[in-house]
Amino acid sequence: MQSVTDQTPNQAATDYLDGFIAEEKAADFLCQSVRTIQKWRVTGFGPSFFKSGRSIRYRRRELMEWAETRRCSNTSYGATI
Predict the structure, then answer these.
(1) How confident is the model over 25-56, as pLDDT tens digits?
(2) What span, in angstroms and rounded, lies between the C-alpha atoms of 81 and 50?
(3) Is the dihedral of CA 69, 53, 36, 20 positive or negative?
(4) What is the DSSP letter of 75?
(5) Residue with the larger pLDDT of the pair 51 and 3
(6) pLDDT at 19 over 50
C-alpha cells in the first residue's frame, strides 16, 4: 500500500474523485438543498448513490458525471413546442 506522500498527483486526484461523501456535502457540491437530493432519490431523478443502513453516500466522480449530463447550451434546450 502506498503512503499519501508516495502517491502521484494523478493518483491523489483519482482517490479524491472516487471517495465517498455524505449527502450534505453532495447537496453542497451540486448547489442544492439536502431535501432536494432526498426527493431526487425517491423519484429516481438524481445521481446514483450508495446506501449502507441509514447512511447515504455519493462518489464525487459520479456527481460530476451526472451534473455534466444536465448541461444545456441555451434556455430552449429540451423545450417542447
Answers:
(1) 999 999 999 999 999 999 999 999 999 999 99
(2) 38
(3) negative
(4) T
(5) 51
(6) yes
CA 14 to chain CA centroid, Å, is 14
C-alpha atoms less than 13 angstroms from C-alpha of 45 in its C-beta half-sphere? 8
User: C-alpha cell of 1?
Assistant: 500500500
* pTM listed for this prediction: 0.75
Q: Report the relative pairing of strands 50-52 and 20-22 from DSSP bridges.
A: unpaired
- Please enumerate in sequence order all residues whose Cβ is within 8 A of that of 47, keeping only pairs 6 or more positions apart, or say none: 26, 30, 40, 58, 62, 63, 65, 66, 67
Q: How many residues does the chain have?
A: 81
Grid cell locating 9: 498527483
What is the Cα–Cα distance from 24 to 16, expressed in whole angstroms?
A: 17
> Is the four-CA dihedral 56, 28, 61, 19 of positive or negative sign?
negative
